[in-house]
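Bench notes, afternoon.
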Amino acid sequence: MSRITTMGSPAMTVPKPRQRSAAERARTRTFALSLLAFFVVLAALDLIITGLGSPPSYVPDVVLNENTGVPPVPTNADFPYDRGHNLWAIVLLGGLGLAGLLLCIRDIVKKNDWLPFFASLGTVVIVVPEVFVDIIGMVYYPVSDGDHAFDLFGRQMGWFILAGWFGAGAFAVSTLKVLLTRPKAKHVWVFMGVTCLSYTIFEEILVGFGGIYHYYGNQPMWWHELPIWWTPCNAIGCALLPAAVAYRYQHLLKGWKASAMLLVVPAGVAAAYAIIGMPSWIVVNGDYNWFVTELAGLSTWALAIALTAMILNVFLGYEPFDPESRPWDFSETDDAAVPGETAAVVEAHAARVTV
């Protein structure tokens, strides 16, 4: 191990990138090209589908308010409230959340592991950034005097929003459980693809019910009921980013300290939207032409792929585009320890220099 000394500077170790083999570089290029191919297909489908017809016929035309310069908030006259549909959604999603929470309680009893429990409860706190996201992203919840959970930012929110995010705890916990198995990078990418597809189907059904919540404004990528630029924002914000933070600090988030997930999960949603949702937010709040609108939605997806790669690398230690890469093992790691599986793996994967 080479040593470099600096006068007056404390000693510290820094990683030096290792030389990757030709085979590793080749499979990394191939995998990166496969992700690029996915994006090209997504872009082609979007331009074809939205070019033929978008948005749904029941959505009011985009008309900008004279004072604010953005589409006005709809009313129940535009999107009527449906009590029956809301009750069904509350019962089903609340039941899903409760079932998931009971499984997390089993982990507490059998393993004294509180992390999944608080990750599940953390999704309920998403209702706070959700209201802001709905305002700027233009989602309207029909209101009813008999369905009034809370008010925030001038919006009345019903009990569905609480039940919905409680049920979404399944996404956060399942992602954490998958990461704890230390899968290969390719399996994480596939899992995120499945998560995005599941989330899209999940929302298509809910919006399609009618009378629960609806999108309005100049939404990009409005293929059917759900403008699918929302998909990666929620999949990364609710599932991947909080789960990655939990994985990275699992050796610290023991017992009551796991309650930090009550802040980490909603912060993950807020961060994901701030990082990748901005292009779509801009066009949603205006009256842009079709191509600019779709370009913004596709930009959100491109940023989502980049953000996913960054999360895999920064929090988990993956080479994100190397399909055979595995994450750091933090299960028994002290906070001051160098990330790695074993000393042999660390030596093989990173030559270290003492400064």
